[in-house]
């Protein structure tokens, strides 16, 4: 490998992408030589077409492995990739200044700028994300979005062994803390050298705004408190969510619930997720409308959706916050044993998953009612995916899936192909966990080579719909509507 030529082409590709100016080229080249433990460089002309930037980055990493600068372990390669791409990213202060300058023109111009940098620096893993399987399927609730998450690589045995032998440190405190900005990483902590955070203020408190490196949807954003503190749902949550959509009216933003089972995967750091995606739940039809006794001016609706969603709408934030707090506080202490809803035993069980948007001149809040109680029949959760659907999804149903986007595990890519082979009477290693479901689907229709992919997609979507239905506290049935109306009557 002619490493001087690779470096020259890599710098040329960054210039073409707008990541590098001629004035900075010599400085950045020398920084790159240092990262590759090189003291010599041979001047050469860049190729007429230098090639895709990330492929050239791969060659630099390959050189580093071959030269013994790093090992072939994924975490070491990721650290060097991040450090190399960081050479082209503005300092946090510079990026924040440019963000604010563009924000003065329009919020969307500012987020577009930040998003493009996050992709250009390979912080957002665009190449890995392209591996994900993604499709939409029509259901009685509108189109559901199905994704099989293939972006995150499987850990190889050497990586696992290295993690086992690496001491656990206390810095950064967690994966979301602002201390991650610029952090080298180690075998247990992802590389964040090329990571940048936009500084925000919410209700007089410092917050940060960043993108997710493994985005599940368009402009997948994370808004995080500067202070490391647990997830919490309270009045400030509703105020913060509406404060964010006021600052970024082209984004939605929501919070995971703050209790285990119904919450997200990170409950230790207060944060929200947002972005530019239009989720299926946003398009849901209205099941019925109602009037809130103390807030008659609020538009209040219950959605036709497998989970139990109250939508509130008003032009004034403060009135909407008051109404949302009333719904939340009423729900926190609400009991209806006929619907298996018990608010508290030795611990609280009722909470919500809130989502905020701006719609023209109105603010909109979706409040998804959640309960994390378990029972002997459903030890994983009464309102959690039940055992019969866990062959597709057994993890928590968090904010993103609540809104109708399935994030299914990578194992399903191969496992579902075995299901399809089984349907077509081909040799198959179908897993036992899928067998009852596969037989049920097969009994309903004639499956051929020509329609098998469509049948599979529809069957997975319908199974995911069952997953969401399990998570709904009031079912979309006649009895469920009566039970839901008992609750909304108390509002």
Automatic annotation (TrEMBL):
It is found in: Cytoplasm. Residues 246-438 form the Galactose-1-phosphate uridyl transferase C-terminal domain. It comes from the Bacteria. Its EC number is 2.7.7.12. The keyword rRNA processing does not apply. GO terms for molecular function: UDP-glucose:hexose-1-phosphate uridylyltransferase activity. GO terms for cellular component: cytoplasm. GO terms for biological process: galactose metabolic process. The keyword Ribosomal protein does not apply. It catalyses: alpha-D-galactose 1-phosphate + UDP-alpha-D-glucose = alpha-D-glucose 1-phosphate + UDP-alpha-D-galactose. Keywords: Carbohydrate metabolism, Cytoplasm, Galactose metabolism, Nucleotidyltransferase, Transferase. It holds the Pfam family GalP_UDP_tr_C. Signal peptide: none annotated. Pathway: Carbohydrate metabolism; galactose metabolism. Residues 20-230 form the Galactose-1-phosphate uridyl transferase N-terminal domain. Belongs to the galactose-1-phosphate uridylyltransferase type 2 family. HAMAP family: GalP_UDP_trans (MF_00571). NCBIfam families: galT_2, PRK05270.1-2, PRK05270.2-2. This is Galactose-1-phosphate uridylyltransferase. The lineage of its organism: Bacteria, Bacillati, Bacillota, Bacilli, Bacillales. The gene is galT.
């Amino acid at each position: 490998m002619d490493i001087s030529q690779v470096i020259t082409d890599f710098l040329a590709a960054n210039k073409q992408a707008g990541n590098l100016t001629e004035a900075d080229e010599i400085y950045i080249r020398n920084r790159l030589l240092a990262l590759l433990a090189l003291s010599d460089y041979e001047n050469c002309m860049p190729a007429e077409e230098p090639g895709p930037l990330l492929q050239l980055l791969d060659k630099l990493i390959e050189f580093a492995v071959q030269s013994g600068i790093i090992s072939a372990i994924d975490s070491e390669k990721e650290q060097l990739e991040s450090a190399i791409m960081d050479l082209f990213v503005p300092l946090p202060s510079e990026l924040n200044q440019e963000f604010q300058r563009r924000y003065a023109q329009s919020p969307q111009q500012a987020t577009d700028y930040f998003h493009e940098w996050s992709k250009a620096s390979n912080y957002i893993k665009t190449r890995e994300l392209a591996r994900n399987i993604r499709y939409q399927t029509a259901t009685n609730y509108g189109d559901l979005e199905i994704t099989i998450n293939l972006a995150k690589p499987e850990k190889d045995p050497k990586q696992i062994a290295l993690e086992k032998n690496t001491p656990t440190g206390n810095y950064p405190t967690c994966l979301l803390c602002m201390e991650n900005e610029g952090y080298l990483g180690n075998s247990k902590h992802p590389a964040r050298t090329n990571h940048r955070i936009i500084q925000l203020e919410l209700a007089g408190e410092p917050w940060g705004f960043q993108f997710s490196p493994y985005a599940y949807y368009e402009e997948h954003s994370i808004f995080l408190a500067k202070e490391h503190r647990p997830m919490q749902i309270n009045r400030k949550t509703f105020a913060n969510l509406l404060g964010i959509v006021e600052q970024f009216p082209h984004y939605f933003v929501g919070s995971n619930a703050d209790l285990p089972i119904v919450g997200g995967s990170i409950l230790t750091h207060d944060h929200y997720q947002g972005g530019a995606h239009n989720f299926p739940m946003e398009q849901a039809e209205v099941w019925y409308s109602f009037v809130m006794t103390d807030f008659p001016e609020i538009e209040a609706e219950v959605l036709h959706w497998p989970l139990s969603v109250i939508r509130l709408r008003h032009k004034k934030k403060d009135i909407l916050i008051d109404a949302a707090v009333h719904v939340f506080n009423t729900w926190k202490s609400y009991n209806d044993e006929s619907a298996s809803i018990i608010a508290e035993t030795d611990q609280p069980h009722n909470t919500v998953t809130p989502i905020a948007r701006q719609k023209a001149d109105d603010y909109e809040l979706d409040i998804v009612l959640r309960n994390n109680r378990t029972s002997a029949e459903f030890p994983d959760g009464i309102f959690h995916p039940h055992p019969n659907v866990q062959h597709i999804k057994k993890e928590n149903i968090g904010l993103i899936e609540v809104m109708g986007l399935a994030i299914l595990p990578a194992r399903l890519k191969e496992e579902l192909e075995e299901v399809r082979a089984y349907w077509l009477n081909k040799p198959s290693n179908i897993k036992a966990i899928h067998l009852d479901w596969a037989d049920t689907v097969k009994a309903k229709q004639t499956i051929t080579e020509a329609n098998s992919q469509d049948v599979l997609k529809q069957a997975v979507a319908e199974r995911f719909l069952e997953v969401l239905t399990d998570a709904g506290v009031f079912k979309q049935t006649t009895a469920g509507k009566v039970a839901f109306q008992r609750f909304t009557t108390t509002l």
